[in-house]
Design goal:
The chain has 221 residues and is of the alpha/beta class. The protein has a domain of 127 residues: Nuclear Transport Factor 2, Chain: A (Roll), CATH 3.10.450. Strands 1, 2, 3, 4, 5, 6 and 7 form a 7-stranded mixed β-sheet that branches. It starts with a helix and ends in a 5-residue tail after the last strand.
Length: 221
C-alpha cells in the first residue's frame, strides 16, 4: 500500500511538472503576432488621377461663346471734320423727323455705307470732344454707348425714345469733295439711311447735298 501511494504521488508530480513545462510553450504558441501595417499603395491612386477624362468617340468640346469684335473706325482730323459737319446737319435740320419726340440724341461712328437696312451695323462712340461741340439745349447730344435701347414692343409709346445718329463710311475725292454715309434709328420705331455730299470751304467742311437712301421700321438699333 505504501509503495502504491508513493508511486501515485510520483506520477502526479511528474504530470504537474510536465504541465508546468508545457504551459509557457502553449502560451507562446497561442499568443498573437502583431505586424506593422503595410504602407498604402499610392501608385495606383496617383496614376488613376492622372488619367484623362473619358470622352465619347466623335464628341468635341463646346467652343467658347463668340464675342463681337470692336469695329475699327478710321481716324484722322479730316475725317472727324467731315463727321462733325454731317452730325451738325442731322441735328440742326432734324433729318430723321423725331427731334421733338426724342429723349436723347445719341452719336455713333460706323463703317457701314447705309445703302440698305442692316440688322446690327457696327458702331463705336463719337469722341467726347465732338459730342460736347455738337450738344445744344435743343439737341442734348451724348455718346451712343450711354443710351439704352429696347425692343419695339407692342403698345410702347412713340415719344420719349433715344434717337441714334451714326456717321458711316466716308469717301474723299482729290478735289475737296467727300461723300459720307449716315443713318438714324429711333429706338426700333423707325430707321433710315442717308448719303451726304460735303465740300471743303476755306478751313471747314460744309454739307452741300443730302439724299435719303431708305427708311423702314426695324425691331431695334
Amino acid at each position: 500500500m505504501l509503495h502504491r501511494a508513493t508511486k501515485v504521488r510520483l506520477t502526479t508530480s511528474a504530470l504537474l511538472a510536465a504541465l508546468a513545462f508545457a504551459s509557457p510553450a502553449a502560451a507562446q504558441s497561442g499568443a498573437k503576432v502583431l505586424t506593422p501595417p503595410r504602407p498604402a499603395d499610392t501608385t495606383a491612386r496617383t496614376s488613376a488621377t492622372r488619367l484623362p477624362p473619358k470622352t465619347t468617340p466623335g464628341a468635341t468640346a463646346a467652343p467658347p461663346p463668340a464675342t463681337a469684335a470692336a469695329p475699327t473706325i478710321p481716324q484722322s482730323p479730316v475725317l472727324d471734320s467731315i463727321r462733325e459737319a454731317v452730325f451738325r446737319n442731322l441735328l440742326e435740320r432734324d433729318r430723321a423727323g423725331f427731334a421733338t419726340l426724342a429723349s436723347a440724341f445719341c452719336l455713333g461712328l460706323s463703317t457701314s455705307d447705309f445703302k440698305k437696312p442692316a440688322p446690327a451695323p457696327d458702331r463705336a462712340d463719337a469722341s467726347e470732344g465732338m459730342v460736347k461741340r455738337l450738344a445744344t439745349p435743343r439737341a442734348p447730344a451724348r455718346r451712343a454707348s450711354t443710351c439704352t435701347f429696347q425692343p419695339n414692343a407692342a403698345g410702347r409709346s412713340v415719344a420719349g425714345r433715344p434717337l441714334l445718329y451714326s456717321v458711316g463710311a466716308i469717301a474723299i475725292s482729290p478735289i475737296g469733295r467727300a461723300e459720307a454715309a449716315a443713318g438714324y434709328n429711333y429706338d426700333g420705331y423707325s430707321a433710315g439711311g442717308f448719303t451726304f455730299t460735303v465740300e471743303r470751304a476755306d478751313s471747314a467742311w460744309v454739307v452741300k447735298q443730302w439724299r435719303m437712301e431708305w427708311t423702314a421700321k426695324p425691331n431695334a438699333p
